[in-house]
Amino acid sequence: ETGVTQSPTHLIKTRGQQVTLRCSSQSGHNTVSWYQQALGQGPQFIFQYYREEENGRGNFPPRFSGLQFPNYSSELNVNALELDDSALYLCASSLGLAGSNEQFFGPGTRLTVL
Amino acid sequence: DQQVKQNSPSLSVQEGRISILNCDYTNSMFDYFLWYKKYPAEGPTFLISISSIKDKNEDGRFTVFLNKSAKHLSLHIVPSQPGDSAVYFCAASAEGGSEKLVFGKGTKLTVNP
Q: pLDDT tens digits, residue range A24-35?
């Protein structure tokens, strides 16, 4: 069973640029959630995709967007990068939408915006 | 407005003793609570959970207690081992909505040999 993988591991961008982060779900999982973890903070929910449709969004501006593909892998896109976007971006996959379903996290992508 | 609060940024205990990590929440709609453990350079890994219909859940050395009236939960680790040293996140979710997890800021546990 393959776990959740994310790419790239680290990324450095400059303010105003755009970035795409990728996530491969654990085998059999149809739900992907993305989280932003700033330094010294807990993960903060960005949005969730279920069967290729957005299913819930946290308090993030529209320049944070995402996609889920038929194989349930996912992308997080951030436009017009700001310094405060520097964080660890985590994706988590699960099976179904029940709040009690365990979410399996990937190792994250560390984004630095200069 | 932090809905899930972990007021102790760090905790240090001796190997073999009990570790108690605390978490408070404000949203009464939360009905499912989880603890995640995170090592450096890894994603959070699920440790233990509890539904609001219970007040205790045990899994080996790990026990979670829930006090709904106080909106408080705690994670007990007995006995603590050096390998338990990690950051522990408390998280909560509301059934019937999305799987959105609301996390606390975490508590860094150090277990000294």
A: 998 888 899 999
